[in-house]
Amino acid sequence: MKILAIETSCDETAVAIVEGVGGKKAPRFRVLANTVNSQISLHKKWGGVVPNIARREHQKQLIPVLLEALTAAGLLQKQFSAEHKLPKSTHVKISNYLAREEALLEELCSSPLLINAPDIDAIAVTYGPGLEPALWVGVNFARALSILWDKPLIPTNHMAGHIAAALLEENNPHVHFPAIALLVSGGHTEIVLIKKWGDYRIIGETQDDAAGEAFDKVARMLGLGYPGGPKISKLAKSGNRTTIPFPRPMLTRPNLHFSFSGLKTAVLYYLRDHKRYNKADVAAAFEDAAVDVLVAKTLHAAEQHNAKSIIIGGGVAANAHLRNELTRRAKKRLPKTAVFLPSPALTTDNAAMIGAAAYLNQKTTPPGRVRANANLRL
Ligand code: KG4
Ligand code: ZN
User: Fewer CB within 10 Å, N side or C side of the chain?
Assistant: First the structure.
């Protein structure tokens, strides 16, 4: 099954084509194309993502990104008839879906390369969670393509995508259940119990800031810029993790919940109270505290539920210290549990993970019924 996937929930415009085989029992994937256009440089000067700038940029980038992905997968229909005209009823439907995306409508209808359907079986699109104005662009575009190409539409949960990212390595062993997933991104910090693909239950989550948000805020305090996660982790490499004893919030509580705002405040007070400090040491000690709590709670959840697999996903899963510590401590404490790490490039937002999650779910919805849902839960 070949799925074309679209992701516009935040500040990346992404289109991928993913081929899935083996069904839910033994899924395997081949990524035929995975194109991502990042808007980071546009949002940087605001210190975070500005929803309306994201929306406008998605409108501008979607068709070029789609064309690039189709070309990379060798799926662009080069032969088209110049007289090929859209039936009026199709044009009316597409115009309705793209009424608020006028430039996209014009570009789509005047791009003969896109009028013929490529050789795919379904279209997947992220419909939440995320920034509402950004999500709608992808959703409306996917609805229009679904009508234009007469292909089924699979609305897909962004967080289910972050879980599926770990499956995209071609030679991975299969995930055995129950599995525990740690999802750590800019907006979410969740521990998920997975009994089978599609059966997800959140058993732990943050009570205030998300892990990625804490990295971003601490980076701002240190004057490192946005997004902060990669900058902190780079600087931390040259720092000493043990010179500053930052708190490990919720570590000793028996539940699976997180809290990162106290840790962030502890960093703020440390910077306020020390006229001179070593930035790299602060970054390293903060990273160590955050990673310590994330790993401890994940292993605790895995132990409690006799997990056969542990999966991590989301932007913070690119963090090398988190990857190393989780692997090292899991091996020691739960030697029979397999740990699945997505390749670093697939931890941050992309559409390949959305295609994989859509394959695991395969629930289609008529285009007219798909809505963006900013607060969608797993
Ligand atoms: O999953 P993602 O791309 O977008 C959301 O869905 O939020 O995650 C972005 C988050 C940002 O907060 C960013 O600072 C963080 O992931 N991040 C990292 C690293 N790379 C990205 N955090 C820690 N270490 C990293 N290497
Ligand atoms: Zn994400």
Answer: N
* Ligand 2 centroid, distance to 110 Cα (angstroms): 32
Q: Is the CB of 286 under 6 A from ligand 1?
A: no
Sign of the Cα pseudo-torsion (109, 111, 112, 118, in order): negative
According to DSSP, the β-strands at 28-38 and 199-205 are unpaired
Q: 234-272 pLDDT, tens per residue?
A: 999 999 999 999 999 999 888 999 999 999 999 999 999
Distance 39 CA to ligand 1 centre (A): 14
Confidence of residue 200 (pLDDT cuts 50, 70, 90): very high
Tokens of 108: 């789509």
Q: Which residues neighbour 236 within 8 Å (Cβ) at sequence distance 6 or greater?
A: 280, 283, 284, 286, 287, 288, 321
Q: Which of 11, 13, 185 to mutate to test the pocket of ligand 1 (most atoms within 8 A of CB)?
A: 185
Of the candidates 299, 291, 277, the residue with the CA atom closest to the CA atom of residue 233: 291
